[in-house]
Fold these 4 entries.
Entry 1:
Amino acid sequence: MCAFVEPPPCSRRGPPVLKLPELIADVLSLASLPESQDAADAQRHKLARATVCSTWKEPALRLLYSAPYLTSLPTLHLFARALQLGESRWSDLCRIPYSTPGRYVRALDLRYALGGVGDGEEDLEVNLVVRGVVALCPALEELRLPGGEWKDEGEGVKLGWGAWEALGECKAMRVLEGVEAPGVGRMRALEAFLGALGKWGGLEVLSLRGPSDHSPLPPSTPLPTIPAHALNFPHLYTLHIHTPLPASHPLLALLSLASLPRLQTLGLPPSPPTLYALLLSHGAHLPSLTLHALLTSPLSPPTPPLPVDLLLLTPSLQSYTHHPRTPPPLPPHAPHLREVQLTRPRALSPSHDDAFAALGKRARFPRLERVRLKEFRWLAPGTSGQAVMAGLHGQVIRHAHALGARGVRLEDGEGNVHVP
């Protein structure tokens, strides 16, 4: 009787070979795509493929769970139960160490499922669900939470230390959007957050908000000791920080010292500590810069003016997006600047007129091709001339004529030029 020989572990084998279900899943992902780009329609098409035949069922389910469409918190709960049911049925004797359908999940978009969740009683429930879901998705590559856009109102979802520790086990993370950096008052969550960032060497897109709670740290509590070289993102090409990071926050120092050789787009809030810390470190070869606007109420104090030398720290800048309604800080000379995007102000002040006049000077911006005014639309052709030249619209038309004479297009928010 021959002795039982234990099969070698998977780590000692050669490169993986695609099996028939995986090949069918790849074919299904490319074939019979829905004409509509709506996520709900795409989800229905994926579900319909699973009912074609038994051969298609497993590949279609693999495709269905790779990027589930979650519209509400109850839907997220149902998805979590499906993952937990698959985990309970999984046997330790299986050669694949991870259960299905959890190992199929590649992207989680929770912007709709958690969009209406605010601070308070639901925070604990949300953290438990997110922690339970992420722990069963070892191949997760993309996670999007509400708060990843500059115009999103309210605060982001506060993840606790347990959720961050579970996310840290997803070594293949490439895209992380909408997260809120824990404040120094939440030390355990902050350490888990920085520890997770240190494990994601393949991160490509990072979009986060500064801490919403500014509770001071007790004097006897030491700051987390994370080595600067732990944040090394050789593939990161997009970094957005939508709200300010305090000058004493460890993340600000770590990002300033991090290696970002492929950074292409940097978005920052109008906060001098955050601006100077990151532009001094990564602005020399930066091609695209976005300045986010702070969401304020009528009772909020006015935003301080931006430093006039801000863009001097980005000599290679080609595209600049300015979300605040204040006039942009234009450098005295920008030889590579090709595109400027501004947000429509409530009224054009003399400072705005000076900015448009400066953009029309070829000596200062020799390669400028277009200026886009976001949240602004040209009136329809055929509108009376008196209405066209009245108010803000008339002021913009006059600037469009001046820029056009210099060879620069002044576009509205949809990319159209004025048609007389």
Entry 2:
Amino acid sequence: MAPSLKKALQEFIAEIPAARLTGFPNNPGTIYNDLNFRFDMQGLTRTAWNLQVQANKNAPNTSVAKVAPASVAAVLVDFTAVFTAEQVRAAFAKSARDGTKEYIRGANAADAEDDEDGE
């Protein structure tokens, strides 16, 4: 039996290599993936990288495939934030667990929550 969506998602987040959780690109694209999920840089807001984990449409895990292509975890990382890979991993884990968009704040923190859509 395939693991539940939440369990599979937590396992994916735990397995993202630390080197992929820092030094984000400035162009949208996939940073890391497996058969069930992908970790994408969706784009830039005025002040942050918009990072998301999305379920893959053809995921072998049927629990994951049912929600695809939805975003299942989201983190905004402020360009001015000083952060570690483990802080990004923890923010994704919290987002996945609580169904929230998480923020890693820096000097531009006041603008981050109002800037989700890049406007």
Entry 3:
Amino acid sequence: MFSLSLALRPAARSALKQTARLAVTSGTARNFHASLRRRSPGDGGLSNILSGGTAPAVQVKAIAQNGIQLADGLLLSSACIFLDGKVFLWNVPETLWNGWKPAHFEIFETVVPRPEILLIGTGERVEMLPPALRQYLTKAGVQVDVMNTRNACSTYNLLAEEGRRVAAALLPITARRWEGAPPA
């Protein structure tokens, strides 16, 4: 059986800083709008990270051929999952849907609470999800919407800003694996 720990790894800043050194040029990147969450009056714009509340949503700032840039400046150059305010590197086959198994999506069956909707960004073009994988996710109680990665990032920002339980499984515009990944 495919191990979840091999498929997903939390995006540790120290490991990704080397990747983040790649510069996104303004000519090739497309910036996304994301407004800040409104806070209650009197809190000074601060949030208590120890309060046990929901984690702040991951926000995409731009997407380019070399990766997805988050609002905090981190550049993700390979496939990733945004889930519950966290970013996971996603170890998937380089060829879209060839060799993909339900095990590549088992995190969405494991996590509680499950996301209301999963946005799957398939790279430059929309490539529909195979029926077996769609059935697996539907049986797990996750609504799936497949689109290209640019639209998936924009939709993710909008739904996360609305406070929805949204997750995104995103493939880069240009297919590439993350360095040091075990075989998918």
Entry 4:
Amino acid sequence: MAKVDQLAHERKKAQFDVGALKVVWAGSQHALQISDRMAKLVASDPVFLKDDRPRLSRKELFRKTLHKAAHAWKLIVDLRLSEEEASRLRFFVDEPAYTDLHWGMFIPAIKGQANEEQQQEWLPLAYKMQIIGCYAQTEMGHGSNVQGLETTATFDPNTDEFVLNSPTLTSTKWWPGGLGKVSTHAIVYARLITDGQDYGVHGFIAQIRSLEDHQSLPGVTVADIGMKFGNGAYNTMDNGLLRFDHVRIPRKQMLMRLSKVTREGKYLHSDVPRQLVYGTMVYVRQTIVSDASNYLSRAVCIAVRYSAVRRQFGSQAGGPEIQVIDYKTQQNRLFPLLATVYAFRFVGEWMKWLYLDVTKRLEAKDFSTLAEAHACTAGLKSLTTSVTADGIEDCRKLCGGHGYLCSSGLPELFAVYVPACTYEGDNTVLLLQVARFLMKTVQQLRSKRPVGTAAYLGKLEYLLENNCTVSKAEDWLKPSVVLEAFEARSARLAANCALQVSQASSPEADL
């Protein structure tokens, strides 16, 4: 059967410069060129094929993931790709793997929390992948409540070592990606105890597997936690469990940029402000927000193309039926998702600026924007991941029965993405943190003028007393009018909630 381009007619009708829009999406001409090169490199390599992924057993699926990750690393080394090129290559390989945690969590944690001497020791090994790391924070009993973690790191002054221990079943590290099968090292978060005093949760670099035979080290129990939701999907990732039975590590493997324990066992804060740890959090959440646009764009692309090709009803005198995309009901559900993709893309770029701004301010010991940055990253992580997960499912429905097929790409896309609603902060918990920031801002209006994204609350009285000035439909095309409408709505909701909280017998009574 001759190949027919069913979309050619639709593409010819574009009333905008497609090439210019590609640059906008990529961020720059330079970024677009790198993306195009890496996309072609991956697409032309049969090792990276993924069409059989939903049909593979977990064992075979994971074996192929290891092969792809190793092949990608060989390409990066052989072609001497830059860090930017390597990042785009891994993006187009499009398979959750241990490398995501190694590059996305393990290395940033060392860069953000280790002192200069520790960075010089560990980063070269990590950059060359002579060690492979993961991020072991979440436990079976505690996820969002980091301060409730139970793993302990007790300093022994006789040997100049910390003793890592998992005292309870619920202290088992649970969920870290890359931990189950691959990682040789982990950033382990544990309660630091020295001289009988608990100083709270701190980070430590711990080796968990031998670099010679990859077996778990004495006292270390490590395993894969098993199958996850969906065919293929996130099952390419080796999420694991980790327990310590009085495992000793050198004192110098405590991450010591913010605080340290001396040879004598004395706990000391460094001159570096503890708030610097928020820089890593902003970086990780910025990445999650940017990823939301990537995942939703793929689902919307599939649904738009399907809607343009699929015809249903309305045949006149034996002619072709009406394209599904021409139905208003389809447009009303699909086009807002298309707009959302670009909105998330642009807010992701803004988050990159926010990360750089917060980092610069923290290094100058300027903490004035920290609370706002925390609220923004929490709210945007929650909003973008929830909308994206729901949007992918909506796109599946927009493709009718065909969307339910694994070959559509949508079921696996949903299964791969939906964990984002939980990891790095449960979305409901994060929204409550945003609400707390807004309540505090409203309560402090008389003594402190809000700035940044919360500046609109400074005109609370005006927003509460005045009505919308829109008089005709065209007024809604003005961004300033739309923005003020959102400000008014948010201000009213915040003020009403603050009033309810102030009158409540307990903080959660009326919420």
